[in-house]
Specification:
Homodimer. Belongs to the class-II aminoacyl-tRNA synthetase family. ProS type 1 subfamily. It is an enzyme of class 6 (ligase). It catalyses: tRNA(Pro) + L-proline + ATP = L-prolyl-tRNA(Pro) + AMP + diphosphate. InterPro entries: aa-tRNA-synt_IIb, aa-tRNA-synth_II, aa-tRNA-synth_II/BPL/LPL, Anticodon-bd, Anticodon-bd_dom_sf, Cro/C1-type_HTH, Pro-tRNA-ligase_IIa, Pro-tRNA-synth_IIa_bac-type. It is globular and about 80 Å long. Strands 3, 7, 8, 9, 10, 11, 12, 18 and 21 form a nine-stranded mixed sheet that branches. Strands 25-24-26-27-28 form a five-stranded mixed sheet. The chain has a three-stranded antiparallel sheet with strand order 4-6-5. With 560 residues, it is an alpha+beta fold. It starts with 20 loop residues before the first helix and ends with a helix. The structure holds adenosine-5'-triphosphate and magnesium ion (3 copies). Adenosine-5'-triphosphate (ATP) binds next to strand 8, strand 18, strand 21 and helix 14. The site of adenosine-5'-triphosphate (ATP) has 15 residues, from strand 8, strand 18, strand 21 and helix 14.
Amino acid sequence: MKQSKIFIPTLREVPAEAEAISHKLLLKSGMIKQNARGIYSYLPTAKRVLNKIEQIVREEMENIDGVEVLMPVLQQAELWKESGRWDAYGPELMRLKDRNKREFSLGPTHEEVVTSLVRDELKSYKRLPITLFQIQTKFRDEQRPRFGLLRGREFIMKDAYSFHADESSLDDTYNDMYHAYHKIFTRVGLNFRPVLADSGAIGGDHTHEFMALAEIGEDTIVYSETSDFAANIEKAEVAYTPNHDHTPVKELEKVETPNIKTAQALADFLNVSLDKIIKSMIVKVEDEYVMILIRGHHEVNDVKLKSYFKTENIEMASENEIENILGAKPGSLGPVNVNQIKIYADNFVQDINNLAVGANENDFHYLNANVDRDFNIEAYGDFRFILEGEELPNDLGKAKFAEGIEVGQVFKLGTKYSESMDATFLDEQGKAKPLIMGCYGVGISRTLSAVIEQHHDEKGIIWPKSISPYEVHLIAINPKKDEQKELAEQLYGQLKNQYDVLYDDRKESAGVKFNDADLIGLPVRVMVGKKAGEGIVEVKRRDNSESQEVHIDELNDVLA
Ligand code: ATP
Ligand code: MG
Ligand code: MG
Ligand code: MG
């Protein structure tokens, strides 16, 4: 493709509200253009990357006998009422009415549609198992659309649904999907981690998310230092507890222990972003005060704490005790009962910032508390796992954290939809049973962004070859010079038979071309310049600052 003919509106400046690096680079390199909040046009280079990601996904789905279909975007409300999700899904569901005032949604996901599709067809166990998948635009009226394609209101997803006669067949497909996802995310060049996840509102009880590791990620992953175990923080509870010898964590790691006075300092100390510090509470275990920071949304109750600390002798710390531990002024916590202590403690770290400016909707005394003056936390010990309902190795060791972008999820749905929507089959004994289901999603447009989050430098994107919009960037440095233009045209004619080539034939300065090339980020660049007359070009890889002179006869060997 000739760059003079393509549409790549690169930008010098990006809108200030673009926070995520991938969002900035997508705008800057002319890949996307915003149409409305969380809604984007994909320009030619983005479209090519999407095509390549989709193709990889398609190959891996077909490899495990997935069959491609395309289901409607416009979904009648009746189906969603059958499953109970017309109400349960809430404001994220985009709703509209047709001219006859019939209600519809714009599909955020397709469990209802696919269940209604198969319920009349898969009537016998002989037709099972089967896996259907599609690649399609989804709509979700996200509360906080942000970070460009990472959280859009309109985005592209591969979704797959499997149907089974029994659990073991579902297990097999789940396993196949898990491995297919491994291959997909490896092939697109992501550094990722599968994690045990919370099944949440969708129902079902077993699920993994595939997390691309990146600072901007909205999910926190907690992983074991001593085993392969990793989970979404929503699934695994971890508690921060002191070592019994009160050795500060950082000292164990031979780093000086800071005296932590602010939530930010605590977040820095723990190497997590501030909003990941969710709850804290102080309890007394065997007469020893323990400040636990709970990361995760589960309630922590006595029973859990007792089993965690392996003792019955556990109670909430009193107001005075907390003041002591926190180094707070006597009386500064105000009159609080145990329940309030918990609320107080729950919000403690998270609200420290609010406290400092005196802004908090809850009318507790601590409205006017001042962190540096009234509080003082010393962090000792380690994060350890508290887990529910999972068969886990006994010793998971210390818990470590990382931020992740959820690029995919595999899910054992069970019979939630088949039961509510009456999708049954006849088993070998001729008995009617609900179909057993699995569902499996990959965020195609989110994956594109996640790859950029991981593959870039200060100049622009650095595409992995597998999904790069083009493989080779051929640049005529000064096409006004006949010999350069001729050689460039000749090479373009040859190379495009073997590679996807983007040919910069524009009448722009070399500086503009190089800047754009860095931004666009194709893996290898072939520059036709001053030595064109001798048949010599310069070859440079995007991930390397060195360039090499190559005779055109050897070009193929160098590019291969
Ligand atoms: P999140 O937790 O980030 O909101 P989700 O769990 O709601 O995602 P799923 O229902 O599991 O998303 O959808 C399957 C995949 O679709 C996700 O793993 C993700 O890659 C992608 N996805 C979901 N919501 C969005 C969105 N708003 N924008 C872009 N991709 C999305
Ligand atoms: Mg969501
Ligand atoms: Mg999620
Ligand atoms: Mg999900």
